[in-house]
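Re: the request from the purification team.
They wanted to know what the chain is likely to look like in 3D before they choose a buffer screen. I agreed to run a prediction and write the result into the notebook, where they can find it.
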Amino acid sequence: MTTIGWLALIILLLVIFSVTIILFIRPPHNPTLVHALSITPLIAGVLFAFTLPNSLIFTDESVASFVNIIVPLGCIIAAFPLVIRANRMIRAT
């Protein structure tokens, strides 16, 4: 994996973990902000897949295209509990 690929993956993980911490420990009171935070991992995963060329992620094209498929799927899995939590918080208010 190239340096830019590692850097992009670390930033993506930091975004996912920070949004999770914000939503579960100290959520905002505005429902719009709660929904925006809950879909942030989806947006970050899509931006990762569509903005980085395969040659910047891995030197091998087949592995890079596999990573471009797996990363957004992982972001969907990470965002699913956040969206559920956001919907429960909005219904509770």
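For the purification team: The first helix runs from residue 3 to 25.
Please add any questions underneath this entry.
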